[in-house]
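Re: folding output
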Amino acid sequence: MQIIKIAPRGFGSNTYVLTADGKRAVVIDPAQNRVESELIKLGLQAEYVLLTHCHFDHVGGVAPLQQAGAKVLCGEAEKPLIGTAADLFDFFGSPRTAYAVDSTFLDGETKTLAGISVTALFTPGHTAGSVCYLIEENKEKYLFTGDTLFAGTIGRTDFPTGDLGELRRSLKKLALLEDMPVYAGHEEETTLETERKTNPFMVE
């Protein structure tokens, strides 16, 4: 499996493109419209879009991918927040782009998408329905944390539906996992073991 990071231009989240066959792709948090053109350059067709949560800086590129045929998935508890004030489009004065959720994940549910095993872990706190995605291939595991966990810090909890107590409980849940690479919604990659040892929000 190949993991391709598309860094944002200006304000936006990291977008991650996963492909097992060099043709079909799973796209996590397509932040900007240019993600579609980047996929074309890579010769990849987005079959699925996974959202860690619905904040505007993570979903700006969803609509064109869905219009091109990709199915959009998110956590079950996040779906009701899409298209509401909780997505922060209005708060930041960004034009809202419409898209629909085709399917949702339950906590701990695993789906095979474009040949890739994806397990959703319910990790509320940044939003009420935030999830992290655990990807497993050939006994290797990778964690995509959105804005739940960053290198050295965590996401904000002062936006609508945010809750610091919930986020701390979610971090304890992640801390129980084995060590693996962590691909965060902003800034650089890290590892779960590094965060257990050095992140002040995970060190008890």
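--- second protein (sequence, then structure) ---
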Amino acid sequence: MPAPMRISGGILAGGEGRRFGGTDKGWLLYRQRPFIAHVLERFVPQVDEVTISANRNLTRYAALGWPVVSDTLGQGPLAGLLRLLETAPYDWLLCVPCDAVHLPRDLRQHLQAAQRAENSNLAVLHDGERAHPTCCLLRRDLAGDLRGYLRGGGRAMGRWQQRHRPAVACRPGPLVNLNDMAALVGACNNPPP
């Protein structure tokens, strides 16, 4: 029986928050707690360590007790993902966004099963309606290819992932990403189970 795979955890919290008027999404409140607190609660049990990718409020994120890294490219979530890959202590990285406040507690299980079934170096979550490229499991050695993609002007995470023929982890039920005010108000008024 193979040894269990050790997995680094990475949270993307470096966005500009344009849909929230420039507010750092990780610190927006949902049910009286910051988004980042909800994500950490569900994410920490699934990984062997956690690193947060952020570009502002670094001291505040560091006070949560986890390492914080910043990207230097300023090219959206892919730049944050690259930084997480470059600093990951283990061969595999499980990445999630800071606005997935109802992150599946079995995300690792689903992504690992898809990755193993297809012997892929990348697996992406699909909720039955659409793919969620920022919820992915990938090998750390993809960092070089991602760096080249970014240097070539690439910015679309899904497009970069498709170059690697990702395994698709189907997990029914919508992933609740609170990525704009309408989604936040809707989730507060009609919280998922």
